[in-house]
């Protein structure tokens, strides 16, 4: 590792989105040749920080210095010129083309004014691959490669000739950001990838590695930064931290106690899920009672949304059974689930919750078309009579005749909620109900949940915000890799316990052992 | 709201076009010529009703022209075989409706792209029409049938009345029924509509059915007007209908548009053709002008929309 200024420094980075401060004065220092692990629960600000580094977002405040000199990153192009490369979870390769074509996409060597110089292309590619120690055939078609190999192609592309060497010659950084690169790899592939990362580090590349897997931190990390709520909790050399310490740092102890939770006596069983599986899910069993808020925790990709969609009839239930109020049901589509009193607030309200061009009232009335019509002719009076009071009750800040596309996130979310308030829905599935919603609207959504449970409804709430889960749930189920990993009663729940379970650690080890084999051995 | 403002823009375009033609040629602004334009436009206007339903729902229907031909030859053959109007017309409408349902079922249950499905139907229906008639037109019908195209109520040609009735009915369906609401909802966000418990597959099938039915209605008027049912009728009708729909401000992305806009769009096409004929512009040049008008109209619309969004 060289002395002198660090290869890249971010200082006091701040970024706000409407209603949320995503980053609040974040510092991050990257050294050449070091693998810097970036940890934090969902929404801690890791991705936002990396998007600022890659030029996808522009920062509101703060400074970035490259090799000691101030640098402005206003666009992805700027970031590339500075030698910063980001490899996202979803790979950006053209599957029909060969390894060589992908690596040099848009930069293939040409002769005679436009004809690809294939021999030179393959030669350069194999030189690069040998140099990086990647056992890949330059002529292989990407769609036939495994995921780990595709990831290698992506890395090779990021580090291909013109990119890094020129940047380095021009005094820029060689920084490689990897966002959860192992999330879909087998353990053998992970080993290959780690070997590659170590070789890159040895050559002086600074690597930022975002992960949720604690075992990886200790396998390849040199330094570690933990983020929480848009701030850096700590940056330490790896030898100075232990797993329990990491979990404690990631968890939020000063619980925001602004949750207006009203406990309601638990009533009869509304829904029973028995051994539900298929797709990423397996063997999921739980029940939901009237008057209860059942929180579901888990990391991204743990299968929470898939579970919600199966229960709401959006996807077919492949294995196991669903029992609604004592009767077994089979849902072919959401229509069937709604007929059984199940309403879904989907995770992505723009893509799944709303018809952007329709008005507030018409969106709210959408699930109730049949009831509002006689012989197929909609009654406008009935529609307004149904939708307007709901919009008013939810304090949607818009007139009922405004298209929902013009509304803010919080108001849009209220409209999606409003869709289920008119009918006979008793089982509510809220998938990330407060994502991208301002604080005022959040509290209103929590109050609405209280009113619903008081009326005898049951709510399944999926959330990535631990304080919200702890604050509003009566019980919390924790999912890990498609399974229920733990069930924690509200009284016993702490952020550390939930987070440990979500990370795949046994719930009891959350504060006990200094050292854990963790999730690495789970597959 | 943005939608009426945009339609208004298209309407201004139509009026401006009329004004220009009024200045350029004395023959344009006469009652008989304007009625002629309305009559000429009726076929495309009716086909464009179905196209508007389909495009509003986020789809496309390339098979309308071929369905016009197939429904037409079924009607003609049936009349020639001595069946009464009360048999022949419903039969022909049923053929159109079934073709539409087949399109819709393949799109919704088959999960195929509308472009491909209706491209296939375009060829299949055309082939069926040719096969059915062995490639020959079926000509010569009773005046009681021809009156559907040649008749007049007072001084208004029958096709104008028929088009008005079709538009009134279709507008009612689109604006006032659950089905119409779902057309917009499916085009605006199909997944959200499905998750709201709407049977998207069923309604999509119906939407293509409407398009097939409209093609068959157009076929009845066309056959009556020409006094002949031709298996090669309706060539390129899909392009005229798409043009009328998009000139009328309906978004090809679905979810946004009105039938009033489509009617104005169809009239713009009709007035333009008529005017260019009156001016003696060669039919080769006419194609270039019409193509340019389509592109410019949609360009203006897109620019206006962009301004409205920000």
Describe this structure in words.
The complex is a heterodimer of chains A (523) and B (310). Chain A is built from 18 helices and 24 strands. With 523 residues, chain A is α/β, with parallel strands linked by helices. Chain A is globular, with a radius of gyration of 25 Å. Chain B has one domain. Chain B has helices spanning 2-24, 31-56, 64-80, 85-108, 114-133, 143-150, 158-176, 178-188, 190-195, 200-226, 237-247, 259-278, 283-309; strands at 138-139, 152-153, 156-157, 228-229. Chain B has a two-stranded antiparallel ribbon. In chain B, strands 2-3 form a two-stranded antiparallel ribbon. The A-B interface holds A 312, 314, 333-335, 337-339, 344, 346, 351-358, 362, 366-367, 369-370, 372-373, 376-378, 380, 401, 403, 419 and B 1, 176-179, 181-182, 184-185, 188-189, 191-199, 255-256.
Helix and strand arrangement:
The complex is a heterodimer of chains A (523) and B (310).
Chain A: E1 8-17, E2 20-30, E3 35-39, H1 46-54, E4 61-66, E5 69-71, H2 76-81, E6 84-87, H3 99-103, E7 110-111, E8 115-116, H4 118-132, H5 147-158, H6 161-169, E9 175-179, H7 187-202, E10 206-210, H8 214-220, E11 223-228, E12 231-237, H9 243-250, E13 269-278, E14 281-289, E15 293-298, H10 304-311, E16 319-324, E17 327-329, H11 334-339, E18 342-345, H12 349-353, H13 360-365, E19 373-374, E20 377-378, H14 380-393, H15 409-418, E21 427-431, H16 439-454, E22 458-462, H17 466-472, E23 475-480, E24 483-489, H18 495-502
Helix pairs in contact in A: 5-7
Chain B: H1 2-24, H2 31-56, H3 64-80, H4 85-108, H5 114-133, E1 138-139, H6 143-150, E2 152-153, E3 156-157, H7 158-176, H8 178-188, H9 190-195, H10 200-226, E4 228-229, H11 237-247, H12 259-278, H13 283-309
Antiparallel strand pairs in B: 1-4, 2-3
């Amino acid at each position: 590792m060289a002395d002198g200024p660090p290869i890249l420094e971010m200082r006091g980075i701040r970024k706000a989105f409407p209603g949320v401060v995503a980053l609040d004065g974040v510092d991050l220092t990257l050294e050449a040749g070091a693998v810097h692990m970036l940890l934090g629960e969902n929404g801690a600000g890791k991705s936002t920080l990396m998007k600022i580094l890659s030029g996808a977002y522009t920062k509101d405040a703060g400074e970035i210095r490259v090799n000691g000199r101030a640098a402005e990153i206003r666009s992805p192009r700027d970031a590339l010129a500075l030698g910063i490369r980001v490899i996202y979870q979803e790979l950006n390769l053209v599957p029909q083309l060969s390894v060589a074509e992908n690596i040099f996409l848009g930069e293939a060597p040409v002769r005679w004014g436009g004809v690809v110089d294939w021999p030179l292309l393959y030669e350069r590619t194999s030189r690069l691959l040998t140099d990086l120690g990647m056992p890949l055939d330059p002529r292989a078609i990407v769609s036939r490669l495994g995921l780990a190999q595709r990831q290698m192609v992506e890395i090779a592309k990021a580090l291909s000739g013109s990119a890094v060497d020129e940047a380095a010659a021009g005094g820029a950084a060689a920084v490689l950001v990897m966002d959860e690169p192992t999330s879909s790899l087998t353990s053998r592939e992970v080993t290959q990838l780690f070997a590659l990362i170590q070789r890159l580090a040895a050559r002086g590349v600074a690597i930022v590695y975002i992960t949720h897997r604690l075992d990886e931190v200790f396998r390849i990390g040199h330094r570690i930064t933990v983020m929480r709520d848009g701030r850096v909790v700590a940056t330490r050399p790896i030898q100075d931290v232990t797993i329990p310490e990491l979990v404690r740092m990631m968890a939020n102890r000063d619980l925001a106690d602004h949750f207006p939770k009203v406990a309601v006596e638990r009533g009869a069983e509304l829904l029973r899920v028995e051994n539900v599986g298929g797709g990423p899910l397996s063997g999921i069993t739980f029940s939901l009672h009237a008057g209860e808020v059942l929180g579901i925790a888990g990391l991204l990709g743990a299968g929470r949304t898939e579970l919600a969609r199966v229960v709401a009839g959006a996807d077919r239930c492949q294995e196991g059974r669903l029992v609604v109020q004592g009767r077994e049901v089979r849902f072919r589509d959401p229509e069937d689930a709604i007929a059984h009193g199940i309403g879904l607030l989907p995770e992505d309200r723009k893509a799944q919750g709303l018809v952007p061009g329709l008005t507030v009232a018409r969106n709210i009335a959408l699930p109730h078309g049949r009831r509002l019509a006689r012989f197929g002719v909609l009654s406008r009076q009935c529609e307004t009579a149904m939708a307007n009071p709901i919009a008013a009750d939810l304090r949607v800040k818009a007139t009922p005749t405004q298209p929902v596309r013009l509304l803010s996130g919080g108001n849009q979310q209220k409209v999606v909620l409003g869709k289920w308030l008119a009918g006979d829905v008793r089982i509510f599935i809220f998938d990330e109900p407060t994502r991208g919603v301002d604080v005022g609207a959040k509290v209103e959504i929590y109050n609405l949940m209280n009113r619903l449970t008081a009326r005898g409804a049951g709510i399944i709430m999926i959330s990535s915000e631990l304080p919200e889960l702890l604050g509003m749930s009566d019980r919390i189920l924790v999912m890990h890799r498609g399974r229920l990993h733990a069930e924690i009663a509200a009284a016993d729940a702490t952020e550390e316990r939930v987070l440990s379970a979500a990370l795949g650690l046994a719930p009891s080890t959350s504060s006990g052992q200094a050292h854990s084999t963790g999730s690495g051995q789970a597959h | 709201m943005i939608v009426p403002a945009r339609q208004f823009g298209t309407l201004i375009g139509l009026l401006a076009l009329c004004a220009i033609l009024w200045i350029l040629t004395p023959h344009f602004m006469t009652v008989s010529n304007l009625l002629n334009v309305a009559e000429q436009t009726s076929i495309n206007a009716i086909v464009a009703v179905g196209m508007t339903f389909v495009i509003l729902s986020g789809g496309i229907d390339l098979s309308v022209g071929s369905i016009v031909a197939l429904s037409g030859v079924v009607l003609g053959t049936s009349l020639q075989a001595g069946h009464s109007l009360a048999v022949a017309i419903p039969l022909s409408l049923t053929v159109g409706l079934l073709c539409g349902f087949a399109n819709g079922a393949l799109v919704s249950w088959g999960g195929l792209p509308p472009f491909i499905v209706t491209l296939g139907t375009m060829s299949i229906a055309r082939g069926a029409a040719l096969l059915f008639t062995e490639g020959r037109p079926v000509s010569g019908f009773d005046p009681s049938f021809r009156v559907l195209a040649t008749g007049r109520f007072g001084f208004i040609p029958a096709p104008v009345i028929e088009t008005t009735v079709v538009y009134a009915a279709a507008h009612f369906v689109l604006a006032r029924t659950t089905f119409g609401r779902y057309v917009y909802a499916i085009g605006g966000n199909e997944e959200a509509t499905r998750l709201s418990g709407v049977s998207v597959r069923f309604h999509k099938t119906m939407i293509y059915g409407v398009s097939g039915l409209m093609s068959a209605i157009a076929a009845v008027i066309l056959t009556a007007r020409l006094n002949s049912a031709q298996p090669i009728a309706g060539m390129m009708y899909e392009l005229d209908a798409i043009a009328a729909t998009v000139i009328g401000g309906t978004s090809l992305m679905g979810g946004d548009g009105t039938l009033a806009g489509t009617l104005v769009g169809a009239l713009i096409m009709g007035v333009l053709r008529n005017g260019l004929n009156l001016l003696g512009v060669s039919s080769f040049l006419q194609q270039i002008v019409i193509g340019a008008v389509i592109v410019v109209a949609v360009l203006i619309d897109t620019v206006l929309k962009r301004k409205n969004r920000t």
